[in-house]
Design a protein that fits this description.
The chain has about 325 residues and is α+β, with helices and mostly antiparallel strands. The chain is about 25% helix and about 25% strand. The strands form 4 sheets. Strands 1-6-3-2 form a 4-stranded antiparallel beta sheet. Strands 7-12-9-8 form a 4-stranded antiparallel beta sheet, sandwiched between helices. A two-stranded antiparallel sheet has the order 4-5.
């Protein structure tokens, strides 16, 4: 069951709203005060060092207590004082300003549904509001995901948010995304690189579509699973670059697309496959095609991307 959870994490400048005066003895309309700080999901909070593994275990314990019959982190929750009225007000003001872009909205329309504790002065909550729109609240879902070794099941990317008083900079596009044909034409890949990528993509599709007869992998044995993993920040940068340079679809949220597979790094360039979420479009196509003489399944033409960092963007 998907929950309606806020997603977007961005430091936004509060809009100036003119005070309303009346000559009939009425006071000026009260404005919400501006709040500094940033909301981070757990992936970001881990990447940026706001949470330790022990903190995440504590949060997971509280998370599983809310719905699961068996809590794999039972007893791991660290004791915390309840949120003060002042802190709740700050969180709601920040949510209006940073997330839903309604700085003068009503605090009564912002709800804190779960509180998971305060870690190094940073409260962790589930929060959303009546101002959330469909396009800004659907987040990437996972049957099971791992954050710093801690497992969260039936979890959505922005289901749990940490608030810090620090203004964390927005993610920036630091590179460029290429499809496989363009990557070859720009000299980013060799023919052997293409064979390795084809092998990896074929294995991925075979697992995803076990009931389809895709035939024999033409380059079996050419691919080895990468030993490293992409962190959340890099995944976000790739998705931002995709929407800036490659996407032809009328969607502009990084939460509309996910990194389905990471194939590794080739010549300093990151190779991934992308997958759209709940948008009625996909990168399907399981017939055969060729890219510079190397055999691929057709959907690799659209789904497999090469990310080159620091490309004078």
């Amino acid at each position: 069951m998907k929950k309606i959870i806020s997603l977007l994490v961005a430091g936004l400048t509060a809009l100036g709203v003119a005070s309303v005066f009346s000559g009939c003895g009425k006071q000026a309309a009260t404005q919400n005060p501006k709040v500094a700080g940033s909301f981070l999901n757990l992936f970001q909070a881990d990447d940026l060092g706001f949470l330790t593994e022990r903190d995440l275990e504590s949060i997971a314990c509280r998370y599983y207590d809310g719905y699961a019959e068996v809590n794999p982190y039972d007893g791991k929750f660290s004791s915390h004082e309840e949120l003060s009225a002042e802190t709740e007000r700050t969180l709601k003001l920040a949510y209006l300003q940073k997330i839903v872009k309604t700085p003068q909205g009503s605090l009564e329309k912002v709800k804190i549904y779960n509180y998971y504790g305060t870690y190094n002065g940073n409260p962790v909550v589930t929060i959303y509001s009546d101002y959330d729109s469909y396009s800004s609240i659907i987040s990437e879902g996972y049957e099971e995901t791992e954050i710093a070794g801690v497992i969260f099941k039936n979890f959505w990317e922005n289901q749990i948010m940490l608030f810090t008083a620090e203004d964390v900079p927005n993610y920036e596009v630091k590179g460029r995304v290429y499809d496989l044909k363009s990557a070859m034409e720009c000299g980013l890949l060799t023919e052997n690189d293409l064979k390795t990528i084809s092998c990896a993509h074929f294995e991925q599709m075979t697992k995803k579509y076990p009931d389809n007869d895709l035939g024999e992998n033409p380059y079996v044995g050419c691919f080895e699973e990468p030993k490293d993993k992409l962190n959340y920040s890099t995944k976000t940068e790739i998705k931002l670059a995709y929407f800036k340079y490659e996407s032809t679809y009328p969607y502009n949220s990084i939460y509309d697309v996910k990194i389905a597979e990471y194939y590794g790094t080739v010549g300093g360039n990151i190779v991934v496959s992308l997958e759209f979420i709940n948008k009625g479009c996909s990168f399907e196509g399981l017939g055969k095609t060729e890219i510079h003489g190397v055999t691929f399944l057709e959907n690799a033409l659209y789904s497999v991307k090469v990310y080159r960092v620091n490309n004078n963007v």
